[in-house]
Write a structure and sequence with these properties.
Layout lengths: L13 H20 L8 H13 L3 E4 L5 E5 L4 E8 L26 H20 L6 E7 L9 H6 L8 E12 L3 E3 L2 E2 L3 E10 L3 E2 L3 H4 L2 H19 L7 E9 L5 E2 L2 E10 L2 H19 L5 E10 L3 E2 L1 H15 L4 E3 L9 H4 L4 E10 L20 H13 L14
Parallel strand pairs: 3-4, 3-5, 5-16, 6-15
Antiparallel strand pairs: 1-2, 2-4, 6-16, 7-14, 8-12, 8-13, 9-11, 10-12
Helix pairs in contact: 1-3, 1-10, 3-10, 6-7, 8-10
Length: about 400
């Protein structure tokens, strides 16, 4: 990472952070205990809207669910984005504020994202009242990040980045300790699609697979060979990866089934290679099943491109993080194969995403999208400080910035 000069004084003194940290923590636990699935985040939207209105923000409810909240002098030119939705998973943490809703849980940390952006917003409101906020700021609380191609597209259609010069966000990272953040200019996540392959045959007795069309064997060829073929037909430097999450066929040991299905995710580190890989899938599947007298139906649900962090926006985040947390807390990070619909915002406006460390130092690494994921709540304070300092930086809108000027 670059060596950057810090901004003129940290904008988040401890006495300003403390009361808002308690509010953010309470919001996080409230949202965590009452998770809502994509496009159903009504109570979460209401809770955040009430908090932001109370802090003096101009709140606009988005169609369906989600909201924006504006504050500061003039029109907003910098945005901070959070996502509101939970996952259809059963929580297994045993926490006193665990999900009260069966099979719904904040297992990806969106409750943390929401609380951190709201907490940063409370700090920014205080700065505005003190005359210390140099420009208008918009908070975006977006619905439905967890469903492809992502609620970001709906938010963009509602005009949430109209007039915005730069946008910033964060994402929980269970591989980094609480109190640290990870940064990377350029692609930091990957493209992601859903792939479903359904096979159809006549069915029959396992003693005569040559008469039935051996559908299970054909499905096995798809499951094992399609990922392998893609690695030979797409530039290997692109990191193409197809991983199956569900495979199902048949109900009896002595019957060849007439239908079978495999579903998974296709991920790629480069946008161009992602588009090419998707175009290949249907033809490769047809070639693989042709010898087995079964018919294939392929559904490719386009998801999200990679989050491609703007170099200067990343530098603004880094400057704020170093000033707030210290040099040792700001770590380089690598591109992941995870997908994030924040990528769509960066097709319209410059910006960057920072990874927020959520692992208890010396503790267990709870992975994302697991029912036992437990982010250390000590991560909230550093996240609030970094996002508030970034949004309050005079350099945050990226107006007339050139390399070397941050």
């Amino acid at each position: 990472m670059s060596s950057l000069s810090p901004p003129p004084g940290p904008p988040v003194p401890a006495d300003l952070l403390a009361p808002h940290l308690a509010t953010a923590l309470a919001l996080r636990r409230q949202v965590h205990a009452h998770p809502e699935l994509s496009h159903d985040e009504h109570a979460t939207t209401d809770a955040v809207a009430a908090l932001m209105r109370g802090a003096g923000y101009r709140v606009r409810l988005l169609p369906g669910t989600g909201l924006t909240a504006d504050i500061g002098p003039g029109v907003p030119v910098v945005a901070l984005r959070a996502d509101l939705d939970a996952l259809p998973l059963q929580e297994a943490t045993g926490l006193p504020y665990a999900s009260t809703r069966p099979s719904i849980a904040h297992a990806c940390g969106h409750d943390v994202h929401t609380a951190v952006v709201a907490g940063a917003g409370l700090v920014l409101a205080d700065l505005h009242r003190a005359g210390a906020l140099p420009h208008g700021v918009r908070l975006i609380f977006q619905a439905a990040e967890e469903v492809m191609p992502g609620g970001a597209l709906e938010a963009l259609r509602a005009g949430v980045v109209d007039g915005i010069g730069a946008i910033y966000s964060l994402h929980c990272d269970p591989s980094l300790d609480a109190g640290t953040v990870g940064l990377k200019a350029g692609p930091i996540t990957s493209a992601s699609d859903h792939v479903t392959v359904r096979l159809f045959g006549t069915g029959g007795h396992t003693s005569r697979p040559h008469l039935a069309g051996d559908l299970v064997f054909a499905l096995g060829q798809v499951v094992t060979q399609l990922p392998a073929v893609l690695t030979r037909r797409v530039d290997p430097r692109s990191g193409v990866n197809l991983t199956w999450g569900m495979v199902s066929a048949g109900e009896a040991a002595n019957a060849v089934p007439s239908t079978g299905v495999a579903s998974g995710t296709l991920r790629c580190m480069e946008t161009e290679a992602w588009q090419h890989a998707g175009e290949l899938v249907e033809g490769v599947v047809a070639d693989l099943v042709r010898p087995y007298a079964v018919r294939a139906e392929v559904t490719l649900q386009r998801g999200v491109p990679p989050v491609d962090n703007d170099v200067l926006a990343t530098a603004v985040l880094e400057t704020a993080a170093r000033a707030e947390l210290g040099d040792l807390a700001v770590l380089p990070t690598r591109q992941s194969l995870g997908g994030e619909d924040f990528a769509w915002y960066l097709h319209h406006v410059r910006g960057a995403m920072v990874r927020l460390g959520t692992r208890t130092p010396g503790g267990v690494t709870y992975d994302l999208h697991r029912g036992d994921y437990q982010p250390d709540e000590a991560a909230l304070g550093p996240g609030i400080r970094v996002l508030a300092a970034t949004a309050a930086s005079r350099r945050a809108p990226l107006d007339d910035l050139r390399p070397g000027t941050v």
